[in-house]
Write a structure and sequence with these properties.
The complex is a heterodimer of chains A (about 425) and B (about 260). With about 425 residues, chain A is of the alpha+beta class. Chain A has 16 helices and 19 strands. Classes of the chains: A alpha+beta (about 425), B alpha/beta (about 260).
C-alpha cells in the first residue's frame, strides 16, 4: 500500500486517542485504528472522569465535552443484608469547577475522536488489527486482514485485553488473581426522579462506592437521565454468587431498589479490569519503533476509594506523544519510561501499590460491612438496656475474631489506601 | 452504465429498548444504514465490478450520521455520494421522498438503474420504489431476491408465496432488493481509508427545485405487544380432563377445529 503514516495507533480508547491528539498537534501524520464500530464501543466504564487532566490539555472542554453531571456528592456505603452504613462527603459550593464528572465513555470518546480528527488525524473504525508487523524486532506497521499499513512508529493502545501484546509475546497472559470483572447496568430513571431521590440539584451528581458481602465492591454514578450501577467482581472469591447474577444482588438490595427499582435497564456490559496496579506495570512498555500506552501497559490506578483510568490514560498518551517526538529526533526509546517515571502516574501507582492486596482481602467485603452495621444498629437501637459504644463494638466483633486483629487489619487498610 | 443507490439512516431495531409504557427509547438507539439498503449498495458495487458501472449513492437527512453511512457506502466501493438536507427525514412522506429522488435523478442522472432496499427497517411501508418508478415513468421490479444482468436485460428472481418468478426489464428501471439478494461485503482497511478522503456532496431541496415537503403526522409509537392468555390447567389430577379443556380453548380461540 502506498499510503504511509508517521504513527499508527491501535485502539481508539482514551489512551490511544490522547496519544493521537498530542502527536497530531506536534505535526505527525497519525492514524488511529479501532476494532469497534465507534470509538469506545468496546469499553466498559463506571462513569467518572477526573477533570484536572482535561483542564490541562483540552481547552474549552467544559462547554464542549459530553458531561452528564458534576460530582458534588461522594458517598461510601457498607451494605449488609438489610442495613446500610454510609459516609458522605459533600463538596462545598465555593470550589471552582468540580474535580470530576460523570459521563458515558462512548460519548466522551466520540468527542475526543472529533477533536483528534479536527486536528488532522484519521480515526478509522471497524478495523481489527491482526498483528503488528515486525522486521527483525523493529515494528514496521500493522496488518489488517489482507492489508498492510506501514508507519514509522506503532502505538499499542489496545486496552485491558492485551491480545496483540500476548500474540507477540510482549506481555504474559494476565493471571486470574490480578483480574476483576467490571459488570455494569445503565438504568433509565428520568431526571426528576434522580434529582429527587439522590438529593441533587441541577447539574450536581453523586458518585457512590459500595462494599458488601452480597456482591463485593460496587458503584453508583448518576447521569442526567440514567443511573449507572456496577459491581467489581472478584472471580477467585469462593462461595459467592455467580458473575452473571451478581448485579441482581446490587439492583435488588432494599436500599438500592427503592431508588432505582422502577427504572428500566437499557444496557448491560462487562469487561475485565486489570487490578494489580504497580505489579502489573510493564517493565518495558516500548521497543524498537513501538510504545504501549494506557491500560495495555498496566496504567490503571485503584486507590481503594476511586478507580482511575481515563485521566491516567490521557496523561500516558501525552507522555507517549512526547516520547515519540523525542525519539524521532534521535533520543533513545527508553526516554518513554524516563518520562513515565518522572510523571505523577508512576509515583501514584507506587504510592498505592498495597491497594490490590487490601482489596483482594475478602474480609473487607464480607466481615467489615456486617461489623459496621451491627455496631451502628446496636448504638441506635433504643431499648431498656442501652449499651455503650465499646460494648457494641465488642458485641459486633467478639465472636468473629479478636479486637487486636481487627485493629491491626484496619491499620493495614488505612496505611495502604 | 450509471447506477443510483438510495440508502436510509434507520434505527438499529435489534438494539431498541422500550419504556414500561411501550414507547421506544429512540434517542439512545444506535442508528445505521438499513439492512436491505446495504444489500442494494452491494448489488450496485457488484454491477460496477462486473460491468464497469459508475455508482452514486444518496440519502436524505441532516446529521453527521448521514455522512457516516455515505462513507460506509464509499468503503464498500461506491464512487460518489449526495446528502439531501432535510430535517426529521424519518417522518417525510414517501411521496415527498419520491419527489426529491426524481429531482435528484434529473439533476445528477440519467441513471440506468435506481436500486434501493425493498422496505426500511423503521417504517416498512415498501412504497418508495414504486413511487419513484411512477414519477420517472420507468418500470420497477420490487422485492428482488437475486439480480443478474444478461444480454442487455436486468433479470430478477423474486421468491413469492406461490412460487419463484423471474422478471426481465431493460434499463432504465427501479429495483428494490430484499436482504436475501446478497451478503454485503465487509470493507477492508484500504477501502475505509479511501472512504475517509472522498467528498460527500450536500444538496438542499431548493437546489433540487423542490419547494416543499410533506411530513407524516406522527401520533404515537408503541411497542407491538402480544397479549398472552395465560391460562393454566392443573393436569396433575386428571390429565384426560385437562387435555379436553385445552382442546376446548383451542377451538374456541379458533386455533384448532
Amino acid at each position: 500500500m502506498s499510503e504511509r503514516y508517521d504513527v499508527i495507533i491501535v485502539g481508539a480508547g482514551p489512551a490511544g486517542l490522547a496519544t493521537a491528539y498530542f502527536l497530531v498537534k506536534k505535526g505527525f501524520k497519525v492514524i488511529v485504528l479501532e476494532r469497534g464500530s465507534e470509538p469506545g464501543s468496546k469499553n466498559v466504564f463506571g462513569g467518572r472522569i477526573y477533570s484536572y487532566v482535561l483542564d490541562k490539555y483540552f481547552s474549552g472542554w467544559r462547554s464542549e465535552a459530553p458531561v452528564e453531571r458534576w460530582v458534588r456528592r461522594e458517598k461510601l456505603s457498607l451494605l449488609c443484608k438489610n442495613d446500610v452504613v454510609s459516609l458522605e462527603y459533600e463538596i462545598g459550593r465555593e470550589i471552582d469547577g468540580y474535580d470530576s464528572f460523570t459521563t458515558f465513555l462512548s460519548r466522551f470518546l466520540k468527542w475526543m475522536a472529533l477533536r483528534v480528527e479536527q486536528e488532522g488525524a484519521i480515526v478509522a473504525t471497524s478495523v481489527r488489527v491482526d498483528e503488528v508487523l515486525f522486521d527483525d524486532g523493529k515494528a514496521r506497521g500493522v496488518r489488517v486482514g489482507e492489508d498492510k499499513l506501514e508507519a514509522e512508529y506503532t502505538v499499542i493502545a489496545e486496552g485491558a485485553n492485551t491480545l496483540l501484546l500476548e500474540k507477540h509475546s510482549l506481555r504474559d497472559k494476565i493471571s486470574p488473581k490480578d483480574i476483576t470483572i467490571g459488570i455494569k447496568e445503565v438504568i433509565k430513571l428520568g431526571r426528576e426522579k434522580i434529582e429527587e431521590r439522590f438529593g441533587l440539584i441541577g447539574e450536581e451528581g453523586l458518585a457512590q462506592f459500595l462494599l458488601s458481602p452480597l456482591f463485593g465492591g460496587g458503584f453508583i454514578y448518576t447521569m442526567k437521565d440514567y443511573v449507572s450501577i456496577g459491581v467489581v467482581y472478584r472471580p477467585l472469591i469462593k462461595d459467592q454468587v455467580e458473575a452473571k447474577d451478581v448485579i441482581e444482588e446490587l439492583r435488588l438490595h432494599p436500599s438500592i431498589s427503592k431508588l432505582i427499582g422502577d427504572g428500566i435497564p437499557i444496557e448491560y456490559s462487562a469487561h475485565i479490569i486489570r487490578e494489580a496496579g504497580y505489579r502489573d506495570l510493564m517493565s518495558k512498555p516500548y521497543g524498537d519503533r513501538y510504545l504501549v500506552v494506557g491500560d495495555a501497559a498496566g496504567l490503571l490506578l485503584n486507590t481503594g476509594f476511586t478507580i482511575r483510568g481515563v485521566d491516567l490514560a490521557i496523561e500516558s498518551g501525552r507522555l507517549a506523544g512526547e516520547a515519540i517526538d523525542r525519539i524521532s529526533k534521535g533520543e533513545d526509546p527508553s526516554i518513554y519510561v524516563k518520562l513515565l517515571r518522572e510523571s505523577e502516574i508512576i509515583q501514584m501507582l507506587k504510592k498505592f501499590r498495597g491497594v490490590p492486596e487490601v482489596l483482594s482481602n475478602h474480609k473487607i467485603y464480607t466481615v467489615y460491612p456486617e461489623i459496621a452495621c451491627r455496631i451502628l444498629k446496636n448504638m441506635y437501637s433504643v431499648d431498656e438496656s442501652p449499651i455503650t459504644l465499646r460494648e457494641s463494638i465488642r458485641e459486633a466483633t467478639g465472636s468473629r475474631f479478636s479486637m487486636i486483629k481487627f485493629i491491626l487489619e484496619l491499620l493495614f487498610m488505612v496505611k495502604n489506601l | 452504465m450509471k447506477i443510483l443507490t438510495l440508502i436510509k439512516l434507520t434505527l438499529d431495531i435489534s438494539q431498541l429498548k422500550y419504556e414500561s409504557t411501550g414507547e421506544p427509547l429512540t434517542e439512545i438507539a444506535p442508528k445505521k444504514m438499513g439492512d436491505s439498503d446495504k444489500c442494494a449498495v452491494e448489488e450496485a458495487v457488484r454491477l460496477k465490478e462486473k460491468l464497469g458501472a459508475y455508482t452514486v449513492v444518496a440519502t436524505i437527512g441532516s446529521t453527521s450520521e448521514n455522512e457516516r453511512i455515505i462513507r460506509d457506502a464509499y468503503a464498500m466501493g461506491i464512487d460518489e455520494g449526495y446528502i439531501v438536507k432535510v430535517e426529521d427525514p424519518e417522518i417525510l412522506q414517501a411521496t415527498s421522498i419520491g419527489k426529491i429522488v426524481s429531482s435528484l435523478v434529473e439533476k445528477t442522472g440519467p441513471y440506468d438503474l435506481i436500486i434501493l432496499g425493498a422496505g426500511s427497517l423503521d417504517t416498512h411501508s415498501y412504497t418508495l420504489g414504486s413511487i419513484i418508478a411512477s414519477k420517472l415513468n420507468i418500470p420497477i421490479i420490487a422485492g428482488v431476491d437475486s439480480l443478474q444482468y444478461v444480454d442487455g436485460f436486468f433479470e430478477a428472481l423474486c421468491i413469492m408465496e406461490d412460487g419463484a418468478y423471474t422478471f426481465r426489464a431493460k434499463a432504465p428501471l427501479v429495483v428494490t432488493v430484499t436482504t436475501e439478494a446478497n451478503e454485503p461485503r465487509i470493507p477492508t482497511l484500504k477501502t475505509i481509508l479511501r472512504s475517509k478522503k472522498m467528498e460527500v456532496k450536500t444538496l438542499t431541496i431548493h437546489d433540487l427545485g423542490v419547494d416543499d415537503v410533506v411530513k407524516v403526522d406522527l401520533l404515537d409509537v408503541k411497542r407491538y405487544v402480544v397479549n398472552r392468555r395465560k391460562i393454566l390447567w392443573d393436569a396433575s389430577e386428571d390429565l384426560e380432563k385437562a387435555v379436553d379443556k385445552f382442546i376446548e380453548v383451542l377451538v374456541s380461540e379458533g386455533v384448532a377445529q
